[in-house]
TrEMBL record:
Residues 52-143 form the Methyltransferase domain. It comes from the Eukaryota. It is found in: Golgi apparatus. SUPFAM superfamilies: Nucleotide-diphospho-sugar transferases, S-adenosyl-L-methionine-dependent methyltransferases. This is Methyltransferase domain-containing protein.
Amino acid sequence: MTEPSSAQIKDDIKKAYDDVATTYLDWTQPTHTTRLSYLQTMLESIEPSKSILELGCGAGVPCTQLLAARGYTVIANDISSSQITLARERLPHSVNLIEGDMMELEFGQQFDAVLAMYSIFHLPRDEQSVMLRRIFGWLKPGGRLLANFPEMGFVSASDSSWLGGTEGAMHWSGWGRSETRRLLVEIGFVVDVDEVVVDAEEENGSVKDIAFQWILATKVWILTRSYLSSRPLQPTPQIFWRDFHSLLEEYKPDTAPIVEDVKAPTLGFNAHDAPTRPDVLNVPQADLIKMKQAHAGFLTALAIPPRPYYRPHTRGIVSTAGGPYLPVLVISLRMLRQTGSKLPMEVFLATEEEYEPYICNQVLPSLNARCLILSQILQSSPTKIEKYQFKPFAMLFSSFEEILFLDADAFPLEKPDLLFNNEPFLSTGLLTWPDFWASSASPLFYLIAGYNAPPMNLRQSTESGVLLLSKKSHLRTLLLCTYYNFHGPTHYYPLLSQGAAGEGDKETFLAAAMATNEPFYQVSESICALGHRTKGGLAGSAMAQFNPMQDYALIKQGLSRVKGDKAPAPDVFFIHANFPKFNPATIFENHEVNPAFTDEGEYTRAWTIPEDVVAGFNRKVNVERVFWYEIMWTACELEPRFESWAKYEGICEGVRKYWQAVFES
């Protein structure tokens, strides 16, 4: 039997839907929950007033009604005149209803989203791939597609009496789940959701299960500066890593590792004094030439950068943890939630061995966080990366566009959502905080990177336990930073620190931003050590990092406290409780610094000085008391749960004893 032509199929479908329009409206009621669930998910990333196209709107119930009620600019199309008539009765005049074949529609790149639920699969199968390409063209960069398709592949199926109709015939076809996904990726979509939902369809007194593939996808060509990148976002972190790893290897320094025979001095920062930049590395001239060529080659390759997968218009928190750092992370995460922030968190673990089912499947999801495993991503192109190199990789592989990175032992005192929506992050896209020290980067690094070394009194070195970065605006910075860390232990860590305090990833972020000429803001207000008094002086166990919005406002007024200008200090925004880690299982052991004990072995508060700083961040709430409460909660609720605690006993009892002595006596 000869397959009907495209024109015949569409004429049949129009007549069939005209005939059963009212029946169809009632018949689809059971699928409303599924449609609305996926639509609500898509709308989480699309602001009201944005422009949305719906293909196959039917009577406009329930989805078009929801879009109109929320204030979206809606164009809705259906091939059936009867369906359009029903829609006009149910929708406000603001909805632009267009009757006709979706293949004959003409639009520019104007939509923030396109819906095609139970519609594209009525087209002849060969036209479906064409339709998807046209939808891609109609979407703005970052625009979303929500559509469903038959799970199984078939060329054509028809029913001339569907829903009791006597006019026309219904036609369906589909490529099947894997081929549909392949087509979307080939066109340039990132497939965010690919799920199968079974509809129980009732007809003529019998029920049959029909499986549909539900797709939520994102258009991935993104405008950068003055050109449209020809490189799409990669559909998975694994595919991106396979491609990016080859780039890291292609432009490796290709010299012997740099040896730090002599370490640079660790100098405190002084805005009034610019000491000579340390220069203690001994690198052969031939090696410098090779490294400079490799660095230049990598920068050239970033002119059109490879694009890691992330969900456009999203923001969240990224951290790395595992083993003994996982309890510390849970405490910090609970402190974060005390601020009222609901930002999602992605926690990267090194390997499957660090994945703790109860923590990752129960505890973290209850706090809007989830575990991801780096080794599962890196296995697409195996390499050895140590934990101290993980930070930029976690940021690269995160699904968020805008990232607040927090070390596992760092937490905010205010809602960090504010930082994304205000200066200085809005205009720069990269925000960092200072360390105690002056820069110890070698002059050789700047020779290799091809830009002048900044004055030693311009800014402090960087404390990278907290930072904000936009992948959209600073992708090249993040990629170059990853290059510095990938080749860090052998080359770039020595070049950027020369063995001085804190050698590691901390200097790679601003170094990369300067090499790519992308803007950044480093907080000017000096970091502050928090601790308590001992006979030997300050027993410092944490660092206070200050409000960047207030710091930026002072700088815009020409006031620099670090240079001696008189002005109120910004508020403390983050506490980085890093020395030692406040792990309930080990915090009461003997450490180089013992935050919970006096010289005489008596219990004490950890943070009592500097008095003005402590008084400042305790104005609204007793921060240390809340912190120790969360430590106690974690110890007492999760003592049998953390795998790293298996060898310890009395963890809850130990913390409770401290709590009662310090906070209840």
